[in-house]
């Protein structure tokens, strides 16, 4: 074993002695996200955009059509919700690594070519939706962690090209969601690029809708999205 890796393992063990860790899903000791809780993402991938009102348009026949496909792997409830919430609210490199491995594993089950039929793979880039500047500064840029795993699995570059405005909302109603869909903007030129967006949780689709508008204004084309969890609306 290389000396560098041995030192890292020794340091990690020391940190766990001083700062014990528990699984964010079930509380099991000495785990960041245990194997049992990872099985909460063991179901099949499915097209989730029909759950998100901001990702649907009405065609000439009056039917709802999706703006682009969004693939989800688990419902945002129980262990999944507890794990994601805990992850978003702490800066923990080992937890980042646990979720990165989770994403790599579940993405291996997705038929990438079939999932994004409009994608021109020589032009595809993976783009995480924007987080606040404070979250990124504090090391809690979870969509960036997910995006890097998606990019690695798909063999596509990751471009952190979106930023979030300073709007602070409690998201109490549809009007607040509409404002949320306008708070993202592009800081990169996406001309000629096909973009696959990445987010942690899909609720109404307002965030993905805002990201899609920003990408389009910057010359790109969104061909799909991947999310870690989907809110089940009543």
From TrEMBL:
Residues 183-229 form the Phosphoribosyltransferase domain. One of its GO terms (molecular function) is glycosyltransferase activity. Keywords: Glycosyltransferase, Transferase. It holds the Pfam family Pribosyltran. InterPro entries: ComF/GntX_DNA_util-trans (IPR051910), PRTase-like (IPR029057), PRTase_dom (IPR000836). The keyword Glycosyltransferase applies. Belongs to the ComF/GntX family. PANTHER family: DNA UTILIZATION PROTEIN YHGH. This is Predicted amidophosphoribosyltransferases.
